[in-house]
Amino acid sequence: MTYEPSEHHPAFEEYSETIFELEEDGIEVIQARIAERLDVSRPAVSEMIKRMTGEGLVEIDENANVRLTTQGRSLARTVVRRHRIAERFMTDILKLGWAEAHHEAGKWEHIISPLVEDAMMRLLDDPTTCPHGNPIPGTDYARPASARPLSDLSAQDDFVVERIPEELEFQEGQLTYLEQAGLLPGRSGQVLSVAPDGTTTVSIDGNPVGISSFASLRIVVRDAATASA
Questions:
Q1: Cβ atoms 193, 186 nearer than 8 A
Q2: If you average pLDDT over every residue of the chain, what do you get?
Q3: What is the pTM of this model?
Q4: 229 pLDDT band (50/70/90 cuts)?
Q5: Long-range contacts of 213-216 (CB under 8 A, 24+ apart)
């Protein structure tokens, strides 16, 4: 069943999208995580989850994890798809920066019609990911077999950036820093060193870039040899 977003369900869209993205990033979806991601109070999350449960969009399992139902996942995929298409449109066509595109796409995702969505995809030549490398639902994106966190690599390892997870988009200044540093999907790099605290220094186009342990655990890369094969 398709649950088409509409102006009557902006909060349902936002919460469904958040749950979907937490799952995508491998984060346990409990109400505390939802509250952190949306920067709202726990009571507000609890009330919204109750409403969404009544609407058949989510369910709570025996471990208090929040799960999207089939209907809720349909809604989430539609909103996430439109958000990521909008981000791609804003960076590729309007030439906005990553952080600006992410912010503005958060508004567009609620109002893009199927007609406009299809037209944007044609104009963009049917991309499979957003500018940060996150998959656009409904496309033929395939995760590379060699994909793994940057933190798994050692000094002198070569890599290609695969994606910057949604979780980092909510870290203040992180997107702008990574974009300016050239840590973009498709870019090649090499690990220079890994500090005891997990901070990773990499070389992108000959420039050293420091990546925090938090980001290194989440940035997804793939093997350079696989990428060039």
A1: no
A2: 90
A3: 0.87
A4: very low
A5: 213/151, 214/171, 215/150, 215/168, 215/171, 215/174, 215/178, 216/149, 216/150, 216/151
